[in-house]
Design brief:
InterPro entries: AIPM/Hcit_synth_CS, Aldolase_TIM, PYR_CT. The protein is of the alpha/beta class. It is built from seven helices and eight strands. The radius of gyration is 20 Å and the shape is globular. The C terminus is likely disordered.
């Protein structure tokens, strides 16, 4: 047995940010509330909800007053895909409510996601990409530059799909870029993703459709 077991753990890296101001800020108004029970919560269940249960939960969230609801991972299962279609086709989404869907940074999954969103009056596309070294090496088999290119390519495809009237009619389109595996990664990899996205500003400009403007928002992890 180790005499000093604490020595087997590496200390957390020190991040020098002397100009940071956020620790002194105070919350002066309510944030944007988003429910992810139907997606992340459902994903955590041993037995995921079927369409009927998801619809019951959806109605409950509306009664609670949520205006942004992450409803599904439509490219991951037919049940999730069908649920998004049901909400849209049966006009169950109030005009002041925005649904959100999750997708990985893969072309086939992004296209499937937009297929589920056809005729939605508003939607947020939640694009995620793992940047932790373990994911990059063992899952993706990629270097940092390749992961950056993957995120950039996926962002460009989402913009193209949003601008395509045949793909999805979106009056208010949002893009949420999220890097997962942060606790197992390093901050520099995330910075590389954002740097690449800044180098392609045209990919994030509001798309225009039938004279209307899509206010696309690129939400970045801090």
């Amino acid at each position: 047995m180790l005499k000093n077991p604490h020595q087997k753990y590496r200390p957390s890296p020190v991040i020098s940010l002397p100009d940071r101001r956020w620790p002194e800020r105070q919350i002066a108004h309510a944030p944007r509330w988003l429910s992810t029970d139907l997606r992340d919560g459902n994903q955590a269940l041993a037995e995921p909800m079927d369409g009927a249960r998801k619809l019951q939960f959806w109605n409950l969230l509306l009664e609670c007053g949520f205006k942004e609801i992450e409803v599904a991972f439509p490219s991951a299962s037919q049940t999730d895909f069908n649920f998004v279609r049901q909400l849209i086709e049966e006009q169950r989404i109030p005009q002041d409510v925005t649904i959100q869907v999750l997708t990985q940074a893969r072309e086939d999954l992004i296209l499937r996601t937009f297929e589920s969103l056809r005729d939605a009056h508003s939607a947020t596309v939640h694009l995620y990409n793992a940047t932790a070294p373990l994911f990059r090496r063992l899952v993706f088999g990629m270097e940092k530059a390749q992961v950056v290119e993957l995120a950039t390519r996926a962002t460009r495809l989402i913009r193209e799909q949003t601008a395509n009237a045949l793909a999805v009619r979106v009056l208010a389109g949002n893009l949420l870029l999220y890097r997962t595996g942060v606790c197992a990664g390093d901050l520099r990899s995330g910075g590389g993703n954002l740097a690449a996205l800044r180098r392609t500003p045209d990919d994030h400009q509001p798309a225009r459709h039938r004279g209307g403007q899509h206010p696309q928002r690129l939400c970045r992890s801090n």
